[in-house]
Amino acid sequence: MTQRFYVMRHGASEANLVGKVQGIQDVPLAARGEHEAHTAGLALRGLGIQRIFASPMQRAYRTAELVAEQLGLSVEILEGLTARNLGEWAARSRADIKAMWSDLSHPFRSDPHFAPPGGESLYETEQRLWKAVDPILSSKDIVPLFVSHLVATGALVNRVSGQRPPFHNAEVWVLHPTERTAEMIFRPEGDLLEGAE
């Protein structure tokens, strides 16, 4: 297994800026997100990253491109890094969705098999994520960076260290699987935006 790998959430998208969830809606990066990704790329120079894998969704892929420009690498699409399908919840405001599950007993809070109407459960999202990344992580010969979305980045950190951070846009963590540790190494300036996935 690889000794270390990096995970990064995409930069701020247009939907993030207005507090809407996206799911698999292919929303572009905002100018803020472009700046965040460029700054992250500068911060990741010299860390030995050898390959960059990204979700095919434009907000993640463009983030990866901007990082890759700083590292002299290309970007490889990995379908399993795609955002969680939020079904009928996509494009709704985070405030509206939170109002729907404000009750602490709502299954969205505790049941990994719960899926929004027409969407994907956390369990389903994570299973396709593991199927995509495990063959890459099984190699000792590369140091990869995975550029993805809120659920995937949180799931990868949680799997290694047992913590599930909120993940700002363009935030980067380094993970050491054998040591079971994860550390945030880059967070862009600015507040945590309310728009999720």
Task: Write up this protein.
The chain has seven helices and six strands. It has 197 residues and is an alpha/beta fold. It starts with a strand and ends in an 11-residue tail after the last strand. It is globular, with a radius of gyration of 16 Å. Helix 2 runs parallel beside helix 3 (58-71). It has one domain: 3-Layer(aba) Sandwich (Rossmann fold).
Quick description:
This protein has 7 helices and 6 strands. With 197 residues, the protein is α/β, with parallel strands linked by helices.
Task: Write the topology of this structure.
Elements lengths: L4 E5 L4 H4 L13 H13 L7 E4 L3 H14 L3 E3 L16 H7 L6 H4 L11 H16 L6 E5 L1 H12 L10 E5 L4 E6 L11
Helix pairs in contact: 2-3
- Order of strands across the biggest sheet? 3-2-4-1-5-6
Compute the gyration radius: what is it? 16 Å
What is the CATH topology assignment?
Rossmann fold
The CATH homology group name = Phosphoglycerate mutase-like
Structural descriptors:
14% strand, 6 strands, 197 residues, Rossmann fold, 7 helices, 6-stranded mixed sheet, alpha/beta
